[in-house]
Amino acid sequence: MAYPAALPRTMKMIHGERWGYWALEWSDAWDPSLKDLLQLAPELVVGKQIAITSCDSGPYLPSEEELRSGWSRRDITAISREIEQLTELSAPGFDEWYVYDCAPLDCPKRNHVNRYGFSVFDEGIETESFWEQIRKSDPLHILGAGTPNMFFVTRDRDSFERVKRLYLTA
Fold it and tell me: What pTM was estimated for this model as a whole?
């Protein structure tokens, strides 16, 4: 699978911190894909397990082959086995991923990227629900792509700084 060269340079990037998590959000008149971000920083998911609450605006349904290889389902959430390479992941847009070092005990159960204009920095019920889900499920990273925003949230300050720097130099 070929990935685009980089994130669009015309977009606006904002960042901040909440509850010990650092957040970056990119916004522009575009249809973002997590592939754009992962091309620059594959280490965010390689070697990790991912709880997928949205894939192409709906639940991700692992194939029989994926289930045999270690993927699982909990309610609407698909949980990957440890990711070895980016080609194992589908990111068609309207995706929301919660990244863990190992499978979570308390899985995220809601997606937020399917709400047009969702932003991790807004005030309101949907954003509060997003942050509450993070508090309960304690992921290492959260990646989301809706319209017109894409976000990266992490409790790893080094990853936050590295992704921010990669975007600024891409």
Answer: 0.91
